[in-house]
Write a structure and sequence with these properties.
This protein is mainly α and 461 residues long. It has helices at 40-51, 59-66, 68-95, 102-145, 151-166, 171-198, 226-239, 245-251, 259-285, 299-333, 344-367, 371-387, 389-399, 410-446, and strands spanning 20-22, 26-28. It has a single domain, classed as Orthogonal Bundle (Hydantoin permease). It has 14 helices and 2 strands. α3 (68-95) runs antiparallel to α9 (259-285) and α7 (226-239) crosses α14. The N and C termini lie far apart (48 Å).
Length: 461
Amino acid sequence: MSDPIDDKELGPVPSQNGPAYDVVFGEITEDGPNYRNVGFLGTVILMMKTQIGLGVLAIPTAFDTLGMVPGIICLVAIACITTWSDYMIGVFKLQHREVYGIDDAGALLLGKTGRVILSLAFCLYWIFVSGSGILGISIGLNAVSSHGACTAAFSAVAAILGFIFCSVRTLGRITWLAWVGLPCILTSVIIVTVAVGIQDRPAAAPAPEVGSDWVSDWKVVGNPSFTQGMTAVCNLIFAFSGTPGFFAIVSEMRNPRKYTSALLFCQAGVTIVYAIIGGVVYDYCGSYVSSPALGSAGGTVKKIAYGFALPGLIVTTTIVSHIPAKYIFVHLLRGSRHLNSNTVKHWVVWLSCTLSVIVIAYIIASTIPVFDSLVSLIGALLGTLMCFQPMGGMWLYDNWNKGRKSSKFWLPMVCWSIFVIVLGSFFTIAGTYACVVGIKQSYDESGGSPAFSCADNSNSS
């Protein structure tokens, strides 16, 4: 039995004894799905699983490019900025109950233009992330099976699994998957972290000279080119870019006022995990770290690590596919009785949304089959736009007219909000340029991997 909905947090209720009413989902009754059924712990685990997934697998590679100290500094800086952005989502939702997605916020900020731009960016972002999830699952299946089948077939299996699980209609019912997926992905990276620490050398490192031990070539400070540096920073941004998904999470919370507490638990845990795992794996592997990082220990350890990681990767793909599908679904049926009742139209539209998201994600995973390149491109082109600029605009929208007399922090916060907008715009433009140049250089040097290839994709480094 689901816990009762806190009507005070839902907005106006039609009558004292009538059904609960939500500004976004309408009347919530026993005859349809309960969209407002995510508790505090469920919120924390959904947030952490939205963040900790594919991004953690690229952090050691980013440290290799930037160097250990600049890498950790950039990681913490991005964590602080995105935590503020995440906090603004909760504040904005409580002040504007009609907001469901980032496009609703965009409509308040910039009218129809803001809605169109952010809705397209939101859908593209999550579908690209879903594509990277499908790619990650195909890499895992290749690893555990020693390339037992064509990679394109493994990608299709990943897409089918993603469609089945993401078609669960509410985040409240997906929460249990997150409880399974998060420990699995953490266990896998811990296995690799321990393994690279006790092995003689990483899998990709050459054998040392006779009579000598292998010594890691990790760097305190790296010397990357502009393209390499921006690509690495964009990988770190991607690791924290679950931000736009928090709109959907807070919208399905039973008590949105607990959002900030859940957020702080999430971000503190995520940042600590990223710093420890990224730092330790890079310290032992140096420039021979693999991407995704689970391949760094090689051989048997890689199979074991991916064996544990696969449930986590499937759950990641489930959540990041469910979010855009739910977003499209809600906007298609919002204001209609079909949104919250089990009608034929309800099910047809819902399954059409989930299937469309998965099919497009599968095509993306098959046409950009290089994990690091796909992750950095998502982080640059769409991740920054989802995590930086809108949140600065949201604070200005709610507080600009209050003026300096409202608080001694008003002017510093205006400057901070503008800084976040400018910084996000810089990373969007410069990061996308750097990632495209980097992908082109990679293809020029190695010839790249063809689309819908059957080749083993689990041995990249």
